[in-house]
Description:
- This is Arylamine N-acetyltransferase.
- The chain is α+β, with helices and mostly antiparallel strands and 280 residues long.
- 31% of the residues lie in helices and 25% in strands.
Amino acid sequence: MRNISESARKYLSVLNLPLEIPTFDYLERICHAHLNTFPFENISKLLYFRDRNRIGFDIPPFDIFVENHIEYHFGGTCYALNSSFKRLLTEIGFECYHIMLGKEHMGIIVIVDQERVYVDCGAAAPFFKPVRFESDHQNVSQFGKDEVHLLPVRPQNYEYQYIRYVQGKQNGKAWEFNSTKACQVSDFTEAIIKSNQPGSSFMTILRCQRWQTGKNRSVSLVNNKFGIRYADGQTSVTTLKSTEEIQAVIAEEFMLPKLPVSEAIAVLKQLNVDIFSESV
């Protein structure tokens, strides 16, 4: 069996998966486990920003990413999640590389059985399995009324488009990408720096999302709004009135009791963001 680092072994242990030979089936199980384990959240991002002069990084190195999940239940946004996910896949023997979507989002292409497939655990999107977007132009990654389509634009030039729909309406930007244009993490430096500036998207909000497919639902926190989306399309939203209520929901509903939410709320307050304000 392949030799992997201690951090990669811990990573697989967190996912509750053994080390296996790289196959499409194994990749699918990794994707599913990852979305159900690591939250999409900016709590860690805010704390890394607070501590940036001491720690010296914007995105955690692989070993720190793993240790901080174990100790604090950290996940991250796309750069932290997908950079570490790609490193794990490489260590266990998958042939893969990063791609850039819309000049900002970091995705991953994995080559399995001589086919390029798309994986992504950093978009809070329902990518529970690799997407065979080049051979299946009707592909859809779906949970309830949350759908992501990877559509051909100029497939002869390997150009595609990522479009997400929630409740039938486009959600966010449509991102174009070239499936053969491999990128390094360093190619995202400008986008990463921009994303860490006060006033940028994930520096003006409190955000946490986790898939719980065993319960047929997804739980989401946007500032002080706690939402649940079920596989059958039903949704519910509850307004939380205090930091203590948010901490309790993160612990009891998200099952992430170690996540230091109150510290992130304090960072936002220092950045003049009041998550309890109706105007946010």
